[in-house]
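User: Run a structure prediction on this.
Assistant: Running it now.
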Amino acid sequence: MKKIYVYVIIGLSMLIQTQAENNPLLSPFNNQYNVPPFEKFRSGDFFPAIQEAITINKKEIQSIIDNKNAPTFENTIESLEYSGELLNQIATIFFNLNSANTNQEIQDAAKDIAPLLSKHNDEILQNPKLFERVKAIYNTRTKLNLNTEQSRLLDKTYKAFIKSGANLDEQKKARLSAINERLSLLELKFADNVLAETNNFKLVLDKKEDLAGLPQQFIDGAAETAKEMDLPGKWVVTLHNPSLMPFLQYSSRRDLREKIWKAYSNRGNNDNEYDNKETIKEIVNLRMERAQLLGYKNHAEYRLDDAMAKTPENVFNLLDQIWSPALKVAKQEADEYREMIKSEGDNFKLEPWDWRYYAEKVRKAKYDIDEEETKPYFKLENVREGIFTLANKLYGITFKEIKNIPKYNPDILAYEVIDSNKAFLGILYMDFYPRPNKQQGAWMTNYVEEYIKNGKKIHPVVSLVFNFTKPTASSPALLTYDETETMFHEFGHSLHGLFANTKYRSLEGTNVPRDFVEMPSQIMENWVVEPEMLALFAKHYKTGKVIPQSLVDKIQKSNKYGQGFGTVEYLAASYLDMDYHILTEPLKENPMTFENEEMTKLGLIPEIISRYRSTYYNHIFTTGYDAGYYSYIWAEVLDKDAFEKFKEDGIFNRSTAIGLRHILERGNSEDPMKMYIEFRGKEPSIQPLLKKRGLL
């Protein structure tokens, strides 16, 4: 009996070894651009590959611990930094695909992989012998003659151990690890629920009167969606933003606006299998417990410790400076909409599902402009080429489309990015359209991060993911002005990744404090409305004519319109984020009750809700913006102030752009405020932001 058992074990081991050897995730990429060979991966490859990569990483860590030589920066900090390359590579691909091109097998695998990685990470950062070596170097850092980048890496590494419980006793370490594992699962569950709730609702329109007020391009798109869902002869509106937002903006069917708005705003709050309320309570309470285990008062203090803001008090101070003027403007906007409702002979109460509809009507009345007038000038392909032209004018870089390159979806475009000196910079993927297996929103990510090892530079592979309206049989993909800004924004993130020029991967590109990472992206938005920039790409998709100056003037004048609503809904979400994460006692009440109470205290008017309500607030419960959603407005303080320099020097000034590139290249290898002051010559002022938003 024992012999049979031994043979079974040996056979199983050989099978696992064979599977590992045949797993394409465990092999070098072996292609010209060092991109993942997506076509070779199967969903079932990921879990065994990550198990094998963890085993390899454990051996790497053990070799650092077993080193008989005294701890040095090179044999401990640098060795630790370069360890886990294979594991990082596989996990990066896996979680990127789970966001942008998922399936049930990947989602199921994530439930095993996330806690496995969490446990492995804790085992490294809570290892007392490894921490002893790190601590010995940290305690003698002033005598080591380290350069700035080495000092930043040492400081970041030491803090990672401290914030992972290296100084805790064994019982507390075990509890911390249990919390981290549980959180990794809860955050996945939250995101899966939001995706399911978004995909599960559809508004089916089967009568022509249901289409009242809707633009023809939207109607065509809704018909295409219906065909894809085997509903020929009907029209379908979904909860994906390119479908939802135009419907709320243009549909004169108030009953249908209410129906889809309620479906949108109640995602994760329907007391069904995808309900997120209990998940939120558990996430918030576990985060609070973890922070207190580590000696912090609350989760916000834990998260902000190494951010530019430093403390929750500083975050609230920033938000408070903007809240009052923004709320005042929002109330004025609400009064305008009530007046329009009255002028049209109606007497119903203004509700949240009315806001965008009347905002568009008032915008058109005040500025003689609507989005349907501007969209023909923002053909997706033209916007993309405009962004490439801007990058060339500022930095001299060029983009060459590559057809024969691995992609994770056939709709994706890929570009080789070449520097001004003809050197290869990296690869850029662009993924434009919604899919049922893709999270909502827009984001930048890396498949390969830049770093230097043994004198060899590893070039980045960057991906931009969007959810723009697809082209139809009668029209190309036409973007709204806001969507055009979004493309410029995410492209700014891609430049941060492509220009990265640091020795260490953990300090490269976007691996900066959360409240600094949005500055390089948001500054790009400033070019969109500049007449000199619009002339380069805003051309009518039928006639090829450049957008007329009269329309540019209208865009510029109307740009400040609606900023009360836009700023208030954003700030409300920022406050809500902080309110959850400054808790020092467990949250016991229903999160929606908590949200409503906090919004009432804030003075939020009932016609506006938080940009993200709690039960679908992916930013803070899934994607790492917990106690950090304020970052966008802080980054806007920086970007509006920084763009003033371009306005002074010329918006295409190459030397000013090179100064900005220096910030992008250095990532987190230097203090962000120090780099900003070097570029700008002074600390940032909040005045350009208030002026730009029309809130002064």
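Residues 2-125+127-163 form a domain with the Neurolysin; domain 3 fold (CATH 1.10.1370.40).
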